[in-house]
Amino acid sequence: MPGSQTPSKSARPRGVSILGSTGSIGRQTLDIVRLFPERFSVRALAARNSAEALIEQALEFRPECVVITRESRYPQVRDALAGTGIMVHAGSDHLAYAATLDSVDVVMAAIVGSAGLGSVLEAVRAGKTIALANKETLVVAGEIVRFHARRSNALIVPVDSEHSAIFQCLVGESVEDVDELILTASGGPFLDRPASTLAEATPKEALAHPNWSMGPKISIDSATMMNKGLEVIEAHWLFGIGGDRIRVLVHPQSIIHSMVEFVDGSTKAQIGVPDMKVPIQYALTYPERWPAPHERIDWNALARLDFRLPALDKFPCLGLAYDALATGGSAPAVLNAANEAAVDQFLKGKIRFTDISVAIADALEQLASSEIPDLEKLMEIDAAARALVVELNRPTIH
Ligand code: NAD
Ligand code: MG
User: Per-residue pLDDT averaged across 210-235, rounded?
Assistant: First the structure.
């Protein structure tokens, strides 16, 4: 829920740590920083592999530290930044350091997958404000993240456009007055493709999202509609609403980013052109709004808004996610890890598009339980589900 913080026009720049700075969300976050060079100060940057991009960003933004998690890339980054005064660290263990520096006010959590969990948890424990793009963290460990956020008073502001929309609709409202959350979905690149041809869908076709330009993993998730499934679980943990009151509505134009229906029959929607920079900026400036030249809706050119119900038989991943949320316990973590592994296999050309949901269903059947795991157990479950997908899903494409 949006907090009741009083807006404060802070004198000193907001210190920002960007975890996953070389990705789609990370780069757009730096675009926002470029719009407000006096009001933000980049304190830390972290990425896995893209040494060149990370070096370039570090030279432009002069953070206190950078982290490259792929250790073999460390010498390149260290040498390029020698003499700049920027500390360079290698390995995933240092992500937590980048997330909790004293000078950091807001952590942009933009690592993809459950690899982002540890650093988000550390930021939460340290009471930072977290601009959360890394939805997988809440899917895997929503309960644990919420527990620590309550203890430390950390504020989590969603970056995901749907959740940013709901968060904005809830400002000034009480969660007791919510009837339903309505998550809109573009439907992805295969919305109108016959189900019978999906087995032949190639990675290139699946990556071609009609409205959004995003990293490869979330693009495939959009094509299977697992993205919306993960978002249902994300919404549950962010707003404390049960899965039975979170509805998915396909809206191909992606103009309405999501809606909240209240108990008195009133519905609020948040609307804008599909541009992630808007929710990214909102998460970084909340509870303030800062003037920016992002594209506005041209109402004259907007001919129509369409809506339809999602086809659960054609996109089984969405149903699997609802089931995992209902089961609780380890099920969402199994769902997420199996999905990450299956998407990876699909992108590598080893399995077919339609094998993704089959692999996840198999993993859920074999591994999911309603018992609530602790963090250590969650990590074991995550690894087991990945291994199972790789082992079960012997290549179907040769
Ligand atoms: P991306 O693949 O473009 O970028 C991922 C970033 O994370 C890169 O900087 C990469 O170096 C880093 N990274 C990956 N694994 C890492 C690891 N093990 N350790 C350290 N760094 C690692 O992904 P993206 O599209 O920017 O998505 C990031 C997150 O934001 C995902 O959780 C995604 O679901 C969410 N999200 C993205 C969009 C979007 O428009 N791209 C929209 C909503 C939500
Ligand atoms: Mg989204």
Answer: 95
Does the pLDDT at position 2 exceed 50? yes
Q: How far apart are CA 32 and CA 159, in angstroms?
A: 13
State the Cα–Cα distance between residues 194 and 95, nearest whole angstrom: 43
Q: Which residues are close to ligand 2, an ion, with C-beta < 5 A?
A: 160-162
User: How many angstroms separate the Cα of 167 from the Cα of each of 3, 23, 229, 249?
Assistant: 10, 24, 18, 18
Mean pLDDT of 86-108: 98
Q: Whose CA is nearest to atom 39 of ligand 1?
A: 214
* Contact in structure between 228 and 183 (CB atoms under 8 Å): yes
Would you say residue 354 has pLDDT above 50?
yes
Interval between CA 77 and ligand 2 midpoint (Å): 32
In one-letter notation, the amino acid at residue 155 is L
Closest CA to 155 of 192, 204, 106: 106
How far is it, in rounded angstroms, from Cα 339 to Cα 336? 5
Tell me if 23 CB under 6 Å of ligand 1: yes
In the three-class reduction of DSSP (H, G, I as helix; E, B as strand; rest coil), residue 155 is classed as strand
What atom of ligand 1 comes closest to residue 49's alpha carbon? 11
The pLDDT-based confidence of 293 (bands split at 50, 70, 90) is very high
Question: Quick one: how many helices (H) and strands (E) in the chain?
Answer: 15, 11
Contact by Cβ (8 Å): 138, 234: yes
pLDDT digits 0-9 by tens, 17-69: 999 999 999 999 999 999 999 999 999 999 999 999 999 999 999 999 999 99
Contact in structure between 284 and 292 (CB atoms under 8 Å): no
Q: Which two tokens stand for residue 195?
A: 């189900």
Contacts of 304 (CB under 8 A, 6+ apart): 253
What is the average per-residue pLDDT within 277-295? 98
What is the pLDDT at residue 211? 84
